[in-house]
Amino acid sequence: MRIREIRLRELRMKLIAPFETSTMRTDERRIILVEADVDGVTGWGECVAGETPGYSPETTETAWHILRDHLWPLVQGKEFSSAAKIWEMLQPVRGHNMAKAGLEAAIWDAEARQKGVPLAKLLGGVREEIASGVSIGIKGSLDELAAAVKCELAAGYQRVKIKIKPGKDVEQVKRLRQDFPRIKLMVDANSAYRASDWPLLKQLDGYHLMMIEQPLGWDDLYGHVELQKKLQTPICLDECIHSLEHAQAAIALGACKIINIKMGRVGGYTVAKQIHDLCEANAIPVWCGGMLESGIGRAHNIALSTLPNFTLPGDVTASRRYWHEDIIEPEVTVSAQGTVRVPTGPGIGFAPRLDRIEQFTVRTERLA
Fold first, then answer.
1. pTM of the full predicted structure?
2. Does residue 262 carry a catalytic annotation?
3. What is the residue-wise DSSP string for 43-76?
4. CATH superfamily ID and name for 3-115+354-367
5. Known catalytic residue: 163?
6. What angle do CA 211, 226, 174 make, to 5 degrees?
């Protein structure tokens, strides 16, 4: 296989409603799409880096630079046997996993299209549908939060995740448990707390949560080891896991009982599959987190979520939950039972809507 050229596009897509976490508020996404021509077959990937370095050190600007000036020269004109070989070709660049994942995803899509098989099957997926959960940002009041949860449950979502931060945590969970005592409920702190906050986090043990996601610092593995000893509620690590080695350490040290696998955070499918296999061997369930992706990134998350150890509902939601218009056809939909059908067409199984992509594109660059 050989990449003939890649095209980078930056899209600006306005969310239906702002999304707030403990670290940032997002109104509009700056999304990088990677379009790769592999032996005459086009594959699509999405770089999920944010507008600011609030979630990870990467941003839209840094990813564009790394893709153009450092990753493309490593693969330009090179022969490779499969998309699974791309990760090792990119090893001279340290970090920048989101940029790497965007490029690698496009090549996996192209390979699946060449072979005429769904990307999920090429990856080793085993599901015809995946369970869908929903992530709800921080709200201004308890009533507003409860109304949002009621709306999402009516839409069929199987699991509810709410964002929390100091001052908007225990009371929020208490209210939801009063209103919705039997729902699958979890919280996500996005590193908003410190080790000294453990007595407050301990209060959450009384509300039968599925997990507390990333309560401590984005690189504080040891702190999570000590915190998990104090909590009955499982800790799920997100931002702390950037590599297979990080996952190995987290499991060996007892830093968590669940891992959220985001393809962009770990550098692509190759590493995501390695982490998945490690977790499966150690009875650590995994699920797929979301990064406010367009339909291209959402399609890749669907494919990843078909692997056998993705046993918990992920953050793969309907397109219309975030976008007035998505950039794929058909758009992603969620059934009344809270599931998403895995497409059966070749590659990601969704057709990029070039008219919509052009409508949202603010810059493009062809690399050949």
1. 0.96
2. yes
3. EEEEE--BSSTTSSS-BHHHHHHHIIIIIHHHHT
4. Enolase-like, N-terminal domain (3.30.390.10)
5. yes
6. 35
